[in-house]
Dihydrofolate reductase family protein (Mucilaginibacter panaciglaebae), 182 residues
Amino acid sequence: MHISLDGFVAGPNGEMNWIKVDEEIFDYVGYRISETDAALYGRATYQMMENYWPTAGDEPDASKHDIDHSKWYKKAHKIVLSKTMKGVDLANTTIISDNLSDRINEIKQQPGTEILLFGSPTATHSLINENLIDGYWLFVNPIILGQGIPLFVDIKDKVKLKLLTTRQFACGVTELNYTVDR
């Protein structure tokens, strides 16, 4: 997840035009997600992704990143947290609208790789407070927003972390990869 130095994942109106991405980051993220077979989204982020990624790689001017990510997106299992999409039946997609802790823990027990959470600050807040996040993969952007949508808000319990890796990108973004120290 991209985050500002002061802990925001988006501006006050959801703006993300401050996020720095380049080919180096795209390549790194592409390699990392290629080892994963499941993606978790909140409803709004899922709908945004679903409107773009299934066909992004088919466009005549598609970048290597768009082609690769589109292929991955189409085959990845999507998990969507949504109270409004109840009963919706979508291919290769699981909708979770209640019993969040039980449903996520059930999915974690199934065969497959890790589940990566993409964006979705509201979903992230719910997962943090249910102690369902096993690690944080953050891309700290060199900017202080001063206000916006925070990544960490109303945290019920302290969450201890162990730093696994860091990486500095040429554009100034720093990746921090933590595991939750239970």
Q: What stands out?
A: Strands lie at 2-4, 8-10, 38-42, 77-81, 93-96, 115-117, 135-141, 149-150, 161-168, 174-180. The radius of gyration is 16 Å. Residues 40 and 117 are 5 Å apart (CA to CA). The chain has a mean pLDDT of 93.
